[in-house]
């Protein structure tokens, strides 16, 4: 029997990864009777990471936690055995904000989800850091886990990055003692340090609504955080990845976390590489197949894994801007955009599911 592994990322803003996989699978079955299709939606550590884990057999555990500006958010994490998968975007992400809050957004909810997972018995926490709304150095996360951030008068600072300018002391005595035993794994493709021209504020602050003046303020605040923490004997500001998610990587490095590329972590969580032996074709994709795809995003990692095993890889996307030579060098056999069968871009955005089915049916007839 012909076997096809279908492992797409989301079409951002239009179709979740599991819906993309389902549409491709339906088209393949219509194009080739009797084909065996293994659906395995993926993510790269950002939004969709929990959904990818759930699709691979993890249980979804609902939870309520603090959102980016303190309002309660109905969210959750994925759990299998002693491993919990937490997605920053699902509780402290940009998409949760009606109005950007670069100076006050917090990672408090991330820490609350970590604590909930620990309460449920997890001893391995995997954290996906994409899609952050905050630049608070992960201090909200630390606060939720028992740390105290104090000004010169001994008063607790308010949430958000801007308040860190007044930081005088970080009291870690109350940190949850279970953190000394738990394994923390960060799924992130960012290797930026906390500070400087390549740091959290300078590079990512503008994406979260920070003006030039805000970026200077946040840089100063994060520098104050690093100096205060360094005074207590912990110096992780230059750890690659410390600048991830507005400095959330910094806080996790303080807690002893290890860092790995997001797609590598997701491949492990979903067991995708175990599904590849015996496959005749792998189909992956995302909304836009472009130069960013080649910089550690999901489809590129999937293509490399399949190409190593001699499996042809076809990518389906909303649009494809990569040349055939570039695609081949990255492990792709071919790529098709929805615009190949529907020139109306607006229709591609509003009806991606049916169009993906048609495109997958065409792939089945050409490659199977």
From TrEMBL:
Q: Which gene encodes it?
A: glxK
Q: Which SUPFAM superfamilies match?
A: Glycerate kinase I (SSF110738)
The UniProt similarity line reads: Belongs to the glycerate kinase type-1 family.
Gene3D superfamilies, alphabetically? Glycerate kinase, domain 1, Glycerate kinase, domain 2
Molecular function via GO: glycerate kinase activity
Biological process according to GO: organic acid phosphorylation
Put simply, this protein is called Glycerate kinase
Under the heading PANTHER family, the entry gives:
GLYCERATE KINASE (PTHR21599)
- Show the coiled coil region(s): none
| UniProt keywords, alphabetically | Kinase, Transferase
Name the source's superkingdom.
Bacteria
């Amino acid at each position: 029997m012909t076997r096809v592994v279908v492992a797409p990322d989301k079409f951002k803003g239009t179709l979740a990864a599991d819906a993309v996989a389902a549409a491709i699978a339906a088209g393949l079955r219509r194009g080739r009777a009797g084909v065996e299709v293994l659906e395995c939606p993926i993510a790269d550590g950002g939004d969709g990471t929990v959904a990818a884990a759930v699709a691979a057999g993890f249980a979804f555990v609902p939870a309520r936690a603090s959102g980016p500006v303190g309002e309660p958010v109905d969210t959750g994490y994925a759990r299998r055995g002693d491993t919990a998968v937490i997605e920053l975007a699902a509780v402290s992400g940009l998409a949760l904000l009606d109005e950007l809050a670069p100076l006050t957004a917090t990672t408090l909810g991330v820490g609350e989800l970590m604590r909930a997972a620990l309460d449920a018995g997890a001893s391995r926490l995997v954290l996906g850091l994409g899609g952050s709304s905050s630049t608070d150095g992960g201090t909200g996360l630390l606060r939720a886990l028992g740390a105290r951030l104090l000004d010169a008068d001994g008063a607790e600072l308010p949430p958000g990055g801007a308040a860190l300018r007044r930081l005088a002391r970080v009291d870690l005595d109350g940190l949850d003692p279970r953190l000394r035993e738990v394994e923390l794994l960060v799924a992130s493709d960012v290797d930026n340090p906390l500070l400087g021209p390549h740091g959290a504020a300078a590079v990512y602050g503008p994406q979260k609504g920070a003006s030039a003046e805000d970026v200077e303020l946040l840089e100063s605040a994060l520098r104050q955080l690093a100096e205060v923490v360094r005074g207590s004997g912990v110096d992780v500001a230059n750890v690659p990845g410390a600048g991830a998610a507005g400095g959330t990587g910094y806080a996790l490095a303080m807690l002893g976390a290890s860092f790995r590329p997001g797609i590598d972590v997701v491949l492990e969580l979903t067991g995708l590489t175990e599904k590849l032996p015996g496959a005749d074709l792998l189909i992956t994709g995302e909304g836009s197949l472009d130069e960013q795809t080649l910089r550690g995003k999901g489809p590129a990692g999937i293509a490399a894994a399949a190409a190593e095993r001699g499996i042809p890889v076809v990518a389906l996307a909303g649009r494809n801007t990569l040349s055939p030579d570039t695609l081949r060098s990255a492990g792709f056999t071919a790529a098709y955009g929805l615009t190949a069968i529907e020139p109306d871009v607006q229709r591609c955005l509003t009806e991606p599911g049916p169009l993906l089915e048609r495109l997958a049916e065409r792939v089945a007839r050409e490659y199977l």
